[in-house]
Amino acid sequence: MDESAGSPIGRRAFLGIVGLGLSSLVWGEPALRALNSLTSGLPQGVQAAIPALGGGWRIYAVNPPFPTFDPATWKLRIDGLVNEPVDLTYEQLRALPRAEQVSDFHCVTGWSVDDVHWAGVRTDDLLAAAGGVKPGARAIDFVSAEVPYVDTLTLDQARLPDAMLAYEMGGQPVRREHGAPARFVMPQMYGYKGVKWVAQLHVTDRIQPGFWEQRGYDTDAWVGRSNGY
Ligand SMILES: Nc1nc2c(c(=O)[nH]1)N[C@H]1C(S)=C(S)[C@@H](COP(=O)(O)O)O[C@H]1N2
Ligand SMILES: [Mo]
After folding, report:
1. In 3-state terms, what secondary structure has residue 5?
2. How do residues 140-189 score in pLDDT, each as one tens digit?
3. pLDDT of residue 135
């Protein structure tokens, strides 16, 4: 793994991940197509030992194998402090107002991917599908199908004009390793704030520390203005 392009902080954070013994996979696009089918049945430790770089993205997961996506049975739960809790099917998600954007992506460990083309649904349109939020709503827990990954954004953060629940990445449906069928995109914050394999938006009255925040990373993870940067 070549993390030498990262800043000292980035390197330290990366080593911290390794030190925790978590399976932060470091994979590259070219090898993934083949590796995914080959490695899905392997033990976590073996999967984590495969470094395949390329394409700019590093594929991260904390609890492999990656969740699977079946369009016939998949549901997105939107509940908590909303007026009409709902389970959206994939078809219903795709029928919500479509937004598109091109934005840069930054991981706190020091790597970035510029000009990523995303398509998906803005937070307001997701919340509208659940009848809107109730008084007192302040935050959203984004719960991953990859247990126990979770992260929380304030409502204001999640509603930023360049934040979205993306179902397309680079003009294609979000690939399995990138969080199929939907991942949250929060370009103004570091990548760990954007949950992959999103299964639930739980609206609450408070910020709760997400997976990486429980391990020392900042809750307000503004790019260039947090985590020691
Ligand atoms: N469910 C889940 N979401 C996740 C992560 C993860 O391990 N699991 N890693 C986060 C981090 S730290 C980054 S930088 C990005 C990486 O996205 P990629 O794997 O598509 O490159 O996903 C974020 N979302
Ligand atoms: Mo990251």
Report:
1. coil
2. 999 999 999 999 999 999 999 999 999 999 999 999 999 999 999 999 99
3. 98
β-pairing verdict for 112-121 and 164-169: antiparallel
User: What's the number of CA atoms in the CB half-sphere (13 Å) around residue 138?
Assistant: 5
- The whole-angstrom separation of Cα 181 and Cα 91 is 11
- Sheet of strand 86-89, all strands in order from the earlier edge strand to the far edge: 86-89, 75-80, 198-204, 139-144, 150-154
- Residue 83: what residue type? N
The protein residues having their C-beta less than 5 angstroms from ligand 2 (an ion) are 107, 191-192
**Region label for 179, one of left (φ > 0), alpha (ψ between -120 and 50) or beta (otherwise):** left
Q: Is the CB of residue 211 less than 8 Å from the CB of residue 190?
A: no
Q: Looking at ligand 1, which residue's alpha carbon is closest to its atom 18?
A: 59
What is the C-alpha separation between 186 and 195, in angstroms, rounded?
A: 9
Q: Which of 127, 123, 143 is nearest to 81 (CA)?
A: 127
Phi, psi dihedral angles at 128 (to 5 degrees): -65, -35
How are beta strands 75-80 and 198-204 bridged, if at all? parallel
Q: Three-state SS for 196?
A: coil
Phi, psi of 141 (to 5 degrees): -85, 125
Which of 66, 68, 192, 214 has the most ligand 1 atoms within 8 A of CB, as the residue to mutate? 192
Domains in the chain with CATH codes: 1-53 (no CATH), 75-215 (3.90.420.10)
